[in-house]
Amino acid sequence: MTTLRSRIIAWAGRMYLARTQKKGFDLSRMSFLPESVLMPLRRDGLNPVGDLAAVREREPVSKLPVPIAANVWLVTGYDEVKAVLGKANAFSSDFTNLVGKAGAGAEQNPGGLGFADPPVHTRLRRLLTPEFTMRRLGRLTPRIHEIVEERLDAMEKAGKNGDPVDIVHSFALPIPSLVICELLGVPYEDRADFERLSAARFDLFSGANASFGAISESLSYFRDIVKKQRENPGDGLLGMIVKEHGDSVTDEELAGLADGVLTGGFETTASMLALGALVLLQDPKHFAALHDGDDVVDRYVEELLRYLTVVQVAFPRFAREDLEIGGVQIASGDVVLCSLSGADRDGKLGPEMEQFDPTRNVPSHLAFGYGIHRCVGAELARMELRAAYPALVRRFPHMRLAAKPEDLEFRKLSIVYGIESLPVHLNP
Questions:
Q1: What is the predicted pLDDT for the residue at 138?
Q2: Could you read off the pLDDT of 166-184 as tens digits, one per residue?
Q3: Does residue 419 carry a pLDDT above 90?
Q4: Which stretch is the leader sequence (predicted)?
Q5: What is the pTM for the complete model shown?
Q6: pLDDT on residue 205
């Protein structure tokens, strides 16, 4: 099997060439689009830009001026987003809707759940769901805590001489990466490579073709893993599906499911771990509360999920029929983009939703989506966050930022929001 590292080199070359293409709607030229189109993917530090709230208050369903033939609607209101995401019969998520648009070809279909409609989506989700029940996930609990402690040990070693330690690369990235390795049953030595591929697919700053290229490389990797699991099924998710479903699921479907688990469970959780740590570091009151009490952990995790909503925009939906959402007429064939970060800050949910407040009665947030496409790995993500946040603040009770907040570098244009690095001093 050729190594994933060598395939990344080839992918990088294709990415460069893709950015010079003259045909199609290449998102690498996003700087030429109106700011209103880019606005749902931008933030001011931890907060969605103010324009997103203004649009939500004025028009929770608004039309975007994009250079394609179909109408494109941005949905920012909480009730309106739930209405769209909850209507699987009225809206399609199938990848074929993108073919010929945004530089996508049929061969670039990532498979998995995100870009599938029923009945395909229903059948594939039934394969995954048993592996994400609390009973099945319970077998991962000891390993999750081990991984967290291992990373804390590594941080302590790196910062023993007073040197700054980067939470992103020492803590936030390795934890979900190693957990996903454990879940899927894939080699740990490939961790660094698929970390890069996972991040690349969500980074629209490099263009749509670069994102699709990263998806192709990841799928190629998982095809090789699936072949090995067919020959010798392990105890991970892929091996269990092979044992229990055998020939009823194809290698391509298994690779797509594995790729979806990787991307849905790695990059999002890594971003949550890093950004959540930043929230705690910026407010000693919250840091101390999480340090001192186990009873507040769940509330803090749920409020951090709502407040940060790192998956900023849901997968696009395509109207199957004429219908009305939030008093606005949507025509068959129109494209609908749901702003999850905007919806989770909607004032209809309660007072001061722009603020982080774990003492509030946490609303039913949309950080994991809604409807049939709600993240299948939501409980796994919660397990990791519940283990990691309190362990971090308890191991390093005097931890503080090693950089000015205004100097921190956040992602400029990404579906999954994140921070590039988060340097901290571990001791006074």
A1: 87
A2: 999 999 988 998 898 888 8
A3: yes
A4: none
A5: 0.85
A6: 42
Domain annotation covers residue 363: yes
Q: What is the pLDDT of residue 118?
A: 93
CB neighbours of residue 25 within 10 Å: 15
Residue 18 lies in a domain: no
Long-range contacts of 113-122 (CB under 8 A, 24+ apart): 113/257, 113/260, 113/373, 113/376, 114/260, 114/264, 114/315, 114/373, 115/315, 117/88, 117/92, 117/93, 118/88, 118/372, 121/93, 121/372, 121/373, 122/372
CA dihedral sign, ordered 222, 224, 227, 233: negative
The DSSP call for residue 387 is: H
DSSP string, 270-309: HHHHHHHHHHHHT-HHHHHHHHH-GGGHHHHHHHHHHHH-
Q: What is the CATH number of the domain that holds 248?
A: 1.10.630.10
Task: Note whether residue 13 is domain-resident.
Answer: no
What is the 3-class SS of 327-360, one letter each residue?
Answer: CEEECCCCEEEEEHHHHCCCHHHCCCCCCCCCCC
Which residue matches tokens 């029929």? 321
Residue 338 has pLDDT above 60, yes or no: yes
Q: Containing domain of residue 364, as a range?
A: 29-425
* Residue 424: per-residue pLDDT: 98
3-state secondary structure of 205: helix
> Checking DSSP bridges between strand 317-319 and strand 61-64, what pairing results, if any?
unpaired
Is residue 11 in some structural domain?
no
Residue 401 to residues 111, 150, 167, 286, 287: CA-CA distances in angstroms? 41, 22, 10, 15, 13
Band of pLDDT at residue 193, cut at 50, 70 and 90: low
| Counted domains in the chain | 1
Q: What angle do CA 177, 179, 180 make, to 5 degrees?
A: 65
